[in-house]
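Quarterly update, task 2.4: protoporphyrin IX containing FE-bound model.
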Amino acid sequence: ALDGTEIIDALLTPAGSANPYPIYARAHRLGPVSRIWDEMLLVPEYRTVHQLLRDSAFGVADAQARGGFDPTFHEHSARLLLSRSVLENNAPDHARMRSLIASVFTARRVAALAPAVRAAVDRLLTELADLGADGTAVDFMETFAFRLPVGVICELLGVPESDRFRFRDLGSALSVLLEPVISPQELATADAASDELVDYLGELADQRRAEPRGDLVSALVQVADGADGRLSDQELLANLLLLLVAGFETTTNLLGNGLALAFEHPWAADGLRSGRISSAGFVEEVLRYDSPVQLTNRLPLVEGLSVAGVPLSPTGGVLLLIGAANRDPARYDRPDLFDPTRQDSQALSFGGGPHYCLGAQLARLEATCALPALLSRFPRLAPAREPVRRSRLVLRGYQSLPVTVRG
Ligand code: HEM
């Protein structure tokens, strides 16, 4: 395989995380796999990313693997905690935890949230209208894109309304753990955020254990203490924290990325307003074209593996470029064209295989409800200033997206 160092170096610059797509195009031209760092492979190809996510010979980096890569791993409470969640475990622990969570976080429970999502969208649109009534610029990220998903996931979990405002900074501090390169300062902030949320969620779980309600925390506490499977206390807290943070960090970015694309493609925004373009089609294309999650990793679980014909060392790993796979010219006709009328797009934004996103249905519910309602309520919605991207490679979204609602 060719040397892909130039690709990963470019992605890790500020310009690269601001706009990775020209770099992904270069990665595609290098071939389906290239070599980076010592023993890592970089995979931009749709077919190979799709296949590796489902291949049981590959797994996520668990606590043991992480401890091997990073001797300070055990000193960081945030890293340790995340390693006890579904996201960082392989079979059999992953299957045990995932089936317990899935038994309470069901499609039925999510579908039942639809009226609450619609009500929350209406309420937030009214707030946006009030804030922007005199023509002032309002930050869409702060006033809508964050508040909708945080409100919905808190409603689902049973977190009281008054505690929600703290989560924006805590979620942002924790989600940095997914980035391939982290500063000591960011790591310290993540540890503090993790400690704070663990205390908070521990108290909430104790309350619900004593006095169960109809919410997801009560339900998960019950199955965690149940006869089959079981979750340890640490696993319960790790998975609650993951659900909370994953519940809004990514969906916030889906809403922001979606609105920015509506601004860049007025015909699509008008199509969404008039119903000529389906909200489902629009949201699927936002997911493909500008995925809120841009990459993930896998490690070999057995020896002697190769990726697209390139041998992989047993101590190596694979970087799966979801954002590049979603724009693979071998998979998509005119991949750099934003086209919400595409059929059967099947972007890899929610991953695939055993770790397929547990919240995909919820994220789609929120975005398909919010984006058309937003555009219809404000026919002259427009950007007020240049939006500012977050300087993150993995979780792609805006720091701020100032809008005027009246025009
Ligand atoms: C896993 C993306 C929203 C909960 C994942 C994975 C991706 C992803 C790519 C797989 C990671 C991997 O295989 O390495 C997204 C995107 C979202 C979103 C793009 C929004 C647009 C949500 C929401 C929730 C959620 C709303 C919770 C309510 C989870 C959980 C996992 C996960 C718990 C781990 C599943 C496992 O390891 O078995 N997500 N997600 N996500 N997601 Fe999401």
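Highlight for this quarter: The mean pLDDT is 95.
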